[in-house]
Amino acid sequence: MRCDEIQRMLSGYVDGELDENGRQAVEQHLAMCDNCTEEYEKLKTLAEVTNGMKFREPAKEVWDNYWSNIYNQLERTTGWTIFVLGIAGLVAWAIYAFVTDPTIEAVKKVLIGAPIIGLAVLLISVIRERIYKSKFDRYSKEVKR
Hints:
Layout (H helix, E strand, L loop, with lengths): L2 H12 L5 H13 L1 H18 L8 H41 L5 H31 L9
């Protein structure tokens, strides 16, 4: 076998994943080739180092801060969601009452409704822009809120 074929098999050899034929082919080649033997030794050393690594447990303060931040985010998200749903329901009810009330003249409806519609268009525009920009903003996921 050629060196490039053997070098592709070295990782499997180091990890003990090769079948008997592949293992024998690698061992025969390593006995004759110094370059592949050097590559094998590097992979073997790397495997020994990585197998000996252990993850360090974060300090208690890190976990406390983590859970505190999650709790704060959930709390704020829940609060804003309830607030927005409440306002949306109130606005929907007001619009329905405003449109269906026959005692309000058409001119007054237009004069009162125009700023409300304008505000709704602006709000939708801002929300749409935020959603669009969040898809392409490289830094939004890296910034702490």
